[in-house]
Design brief:
EC 1.1.1.37, Lactate/malate_DH_N, oxidoreductase, binds ligand NAX, alpha/beta, NAD, globular
């Protein structure tokens, strides 16, 4: 029998995980491969997490071999092959950006160190918790024995948001769209790129043929969608964030579809002028569990300036966490 894939998920009693865990357990991530879930929470949330585990039990998912919970990352991450770092400290009213970075720094330095010590050598770490790119950088820097390529951050939700906004504008199915890219930071500065996207094989920006719509409607709608969801729902996006987390990890493990790419925030190798080491979103393909940044795309002046602005924000965040001594 096949050894179960050990999957760590943090923030397991939170709202994203209330969708995510059930998607993973039902096979959306790895099909019918046996899995073991390792769920991390902070101590006060362990009781709520026990309730979530009761519900997982009550689904009687056949692929779930074992579920373990705990508040010690060194125990929970022991031997894990996949780690989805969802739990983070949300920004509260009156909190400065520095406060947010240091609160999350404490979480992601500890989790990076624990992964370094006890995770499987081939561990793939995907950070969803915000600020996702910089949290992934912090975790990676605190895990010097794990190759940087094994740390990603999530921009797939932004990617999916861009697909649907474009599909609705053109009155086509999302299936007609390929080669969508989110560049940069998972933040309001992100750049969803229609100039390299295709709709039924034709250039998306040319089909839209409306630069004002791209600049004043499409980009802000995608970039500020999280705030719009909070405004409408009274809670931040959870099911869609869970869906994107599953899709990113699934594609990273099983590969991207032939002839297309996806958006993944990965450590820059200097591609497209993004400073090496920053965890920035790029168009990526995956084969045999290894991603590659798609090379050779053309960037017009508009795209270049948008990418530069988002990357500048990532540089600022890196400088801030360096000054805080987190990396
Ligand atoms: P919730 O506040 O519902 O859940 C977070 C959970 O994390 C809580 O149960 C908390 O106890 C736990 N937690 C906190 N510190 C922890 C630690 N050190 N170890 C383990 N668990 C810990 O938030 P939720 O709505 O689930 O969102 C989680 C994170 O995802 C937030 O940072 C949020 O900003 C981020 N998001 C990221 C998105 C993305 O596309 N990258 C989109 C959705 C979401 O906004």
């Amino acid at each position: 029998t096949e050894a179960p894939v050990k999957i760590a998920v943090t923030g397991a009693a939170g709202q994203i995980c209330y969708s995510l865990l059930f998607r993973i357990a039902s096979g959306s991530l790895l099909g019918d491969r046996p899995i073991e879930l390792r769920l991390l929470e902070i101590t006060p949330a362990l009781k709520a997490l026990e309730g979530v585990v009761m519900e997982l039990d009550d689904c009687a998912f056949g692929n779930v071999v074992n579920i373990e919970i705990g508040d010690d990352p060194k125990k929970v991450f022991d031997g894990v092959n996949l780690a989805m770092l969802v739990g983070a400290m949300p920004r509260k009213a009156g909190m400065e950006r520095g406060d947010l970075l240091s609160a999350n720094g404490a979480i992601f330095t500890a989790q990076g160190k624990a992964l370094n010590e006890v995770a499987a050598d081939d561990v793939k770490v995907l950070v969803t918790g915000n600020p996702a790119n910089t949290n992934a950088l912090i975790a990676s820097k605190n895990a010097p024995d794990i190759p940087v390529e094994q740390f990603n951050a999530l921009t797939r939700l932004d990617h999916n948001r861009a697909l649907t906004q474009l599909a609705q504008k053109l009155g086509v199915s999302v299936n007609a769209i390929s080669h969508m890219t989110i560049w940069g930071n998972h933040s309001a500065t992100q750049y969803p790129d229609l100039f390299n996207a295709l709709v039924d094989g034709k250039n998306a920006a040319e089909l839209v043929d409306d630069q004002a719509w791209i600049e004043s409607t499409f980009i802000p709608t995608v970039a500020k969608r999280g705030a719009a969801i909070i405004e409408a729902r009274g809670l931040s996006s959870a099911a869609s964030a869970a869906n994107a987390t599953v899709e990113h990890m699934r594609d990273w493990v099983l590969g991207t579809p032939e002839g297309d790419w996806v958006s993944m925030a990965v450590p820059s190798d200097g591609s497209y002028g993004v400073p090496e080491g920053l965890i920035s979103s790029f168009p990526c393909t995956v084969k045999d569990g290894k991603y590659e940044i798609v090379q050779g795309l053309e960037l017009n002046d508009f795209s270049r300036s948008k990418i530069d602005a988002s990357v500048a924000e990532l540089v600022d965040e890196r400088n801030a966490v360096t000054e805080l001594g987190l990396i």
